[in-house]
Amino acid sequence: MDKPQWVINGEMFSPKIIDVAAKPKFKESHTRVTTYLENNLHVIIKLLLEHGQIESISGFINESIKYYLMKEKNDFSNNDY
Q1: What are the CA-CA distances from residue 3 to residues 8, 12, 25, 81 (Å)?
Q2: pTM given for the model
Q3: HSE of 22, CA atoms in CB hemisphere, 13 A
Q4: In the predicted structure, residue 80 carries a pLDDT above the cut 70
Q5: d(CA 56, CA 45)
Q6: How far apart are CA 27 and CA 5, in angstroms?
Q7: Half-sphere exposure of 78 (CA within 13 A, CB side)
Q8: DSSP assignment of 46-79, as one string?
Q9: What is the C-alpha to C-alpha distance for residues 13 and 11, in angstroms, rounded to an integer?
Q10: Other Cβ atoms within 10 Å of 45 Cβ, number
């Protein structure tokens, strides 16, 4: 079967076909964690979410932890390898 094609602004467009079977289910790649935030941090995060500055609280926390680990707890961050 041929892939569908369209023209957008004079250029050919064909959507990427994603194999959804290859993508792991959410529960296979995530673990539920219950934690406590300081009240002021919770208010700020909710404001960011309401104003579209972050997509989700979970995503924001995941990205924040990744950033912290790479910057503060990574042996390779000082190029000592």
Answers
A1: 16, 12, 26, 46
A2: 0.62
A3: 3
A4: no
A5: 9
A6: 35
A7: 4
A8: HHHHHTTSSS-HHHHHHHHHHHHHHHHS-GGGGT
A9: 6
A10: 17
Positive or negative: CA dihedral 41, 35, 68, 45: negative
With a CB cutoff of 8 Å and minimum separation 6, the contacts of 48 are 54, 60
- Mean pLDDT score across all residues of the chain: 86
Q: pLDDT tens, 31-64?
A: 999 999 999 999 999 999 999 999 999 999 999 9
Q: How far apart are CA 26 and CA 73, in angstroms?
A: 27
Q: Are 6 and 13 contacting, i.e. CB atoms less than 8 angstroms apart?
A: yes
Please choose, from the candidates 3, 64, 4, the residue with its C-alpha nearest in 3D space to the C-alpha of residue 35: 64
DSSP state of 4: P
Q: Which two tokens stand for residue 80?
A: 């000592």
